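Feature request disguised as a bug report, sorry. It would help if multi-protein outputs had a clear separator. Right now it looks like this:
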Amino acid sequence: MGDPQIPILSKPIRPAELRSTILALKLQTEQHPVHA
């Protein structure tokens, strides 16, 4: 959660932004699998 590249929760965002952000994160995760 301390990743500076994902400041999602630091500011209110619109649903459209949220959707695109989730899509981008999903693509990133598929490209670079993160083992949590």
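(second protein starts here, but nothing in the output says so)
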Amino acid sequence: MHDARAAARARQDIVRLAHTRADSFTLRQAVAERMRRWVDFDAYCWWTTDPATMFLTTSVAEWEKFPSASCLQIHRNEYLEQDFNKFRDLARAKEPAALLARATEGHPERSNRYQQLMWPDRMTAELRSAQTVDGACWGALALYRAADRPGFDEHDVRLLADLAPHLAHGLRTALLADAIEGAAGPDTSGLIILGPEGRVAAVTAGAARWLRHLRDAVGGRLPEHRLSDAIYAVASVARGLNEGPGPARLPRARVRVETGEWLLVHAARLERDGDATDEVAVMIEQARPTQIAPVLVRAYGLSQRETDVVKAVLHGLSTEEIAHSLHLSPYTVQDYLKSVFHKVGVSSRRELVAHVFTEQHWPQYGDGEAALTADGWYQQPTEPA
């Protein structure tokens, strides 16, 4: 739909939706419904992402249109295989939307994703977009057209690129749509053993509880046999890790369930008699405040300097001490605090500490969350020269 007036109305409607305080599932469904009238597609898959790792965490998709595809295949392709227009690459690109046809110079069959996930269900055109704001990616969207339709064009690319920061804002805000104080359950960790094809081989009682919460987090729309995207993501990366000297860095992702609790999901490939097996152990546990701090800070949209001020407040520094440590005037510190209070929705330092980090301070965050390398891992901080 390239009519200028109709496109302008559709864009305005989508931007308005993106700036409401809907949960991420409602937001994605509503935006996709309106976007379909604008861009015109036959199927879509839309994920939230953990901005620290770029792992896909939850999905809203028309899976019935991809009967040949599996979640395990999708995650293997995204994290383990060479391919075109990876979401982590789009998140860093100047234009965060791209066509598979253009990336492959008109030969989409060069793409493993096309051969394994699209063509078997007769989807031949793909348009991808990463939703990034303030340097953090909060969503990943893929639109598809069937073989009997013309492909997407550059006009469609520009439309999605234009919408990307608005959609990122909406997904970021959705993390805080509900009260941060969830109905906390027992602080129980759980273990899942996944076989070669991603099927559950064994599960502990604690993991079964968290699996129910993860299923409820998507409105019960996950079939009983399907696990959360966050689990498939970390398992796929763990399975593909190359052996090397020293301990391996465990792939991990953070995801929030409907109770308001944050879970930390991480995985490792199992060994037997010193040899790697095809089984993966996935651990699920309740995330501690120091583990979810980076996500929460970004969710509130704090700038780097505001983050520095919040860190100092959580360490108990006075206004004068903050000013001295950050080389600012006390008046500037007060201005930053006012901005933080407005974004978080509190009116005092005490409320700030109680609302965001109710259990402990933020000693592990240091000078900010580590940057990401090209393959999605945390980049280790370098020592100053």
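Even a blank line would do. Unrelated, but nice: Residues 154-174 form the longest helix (21 residues).
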